[in-house]
Structures are given as C-alpha cells and as structure tokens.
Amino acid sequence: MIKVLVNGAKGKMGQETVRAIQKEADLKLVGQTDHTDNLTEKLAQLKPNVVVDFTRPDCVLENTLSILQANCCPVIGTTGVTQQDLEKIAKLAKEKGLGALVCPNFSISAVLMMVYAAKIAKHM
pTM (2 decimals)? Predict the structure, then answer.
C-alpha cells in the first residue's frame, strides 16, 4: 500500500487528485494539505511515501525540497519549476536515494490526453 499526501488539495487539480487516489486499491490517501498547513509538520506526522504537489510556482521548490528531506518521493504537477530548480531537486533526490517526478503543465497535458483519447476511442 502506497501512502499518499496531496499538497494543494483545495485547488482544482488537487481535488481531482484526491478523488483519483481514493479510487485506487493500492493507494491510501493519508493527508490533504494546502497553503495554510505546515507541510514539514504534516510530513513528519503522516509519513507518506509519496507527495503529489499541485501548489504555486512561488513555493514549489521549497515544498519539493521539504518532501525529499522527509524521505518522501515528490510528484510535482505545479508549473514554474526552472532548470536550476530541477538541478537542486535531482541533487537532493540522488543524495537521498529517492525518485522524483516533475511534470509541469500536468493539468493541460492530462486534459489533452483525455480529449484525444475520447476522440480516438470512437475509431477503435
């Protein structure tokens, strides 16, 4: 069972992520945080394996580094991650022996995939 925390759970993508996780038998939603929560405290308290972050560009790097410092694997859907940020994330992930997935513009990509999958399905 993979324990998952959703950071940015009150936003549109965060809410969708929460619903998706709740439908999966091998995933357990252990927490939902947002900008009013102390992420570091919640990570220590809830001890998730994975944290999905759909927050804001101004805090995504700090969030990601906090997630890695807590020995959790980040899945980042927040836009605004720079090349320099990616290098910092990769360095810390390697030091910790953890995986990290950074998928900026995830919401746009996901919507496009769903739209085109529906169109393609009509021809299959």
Answer: 0.83
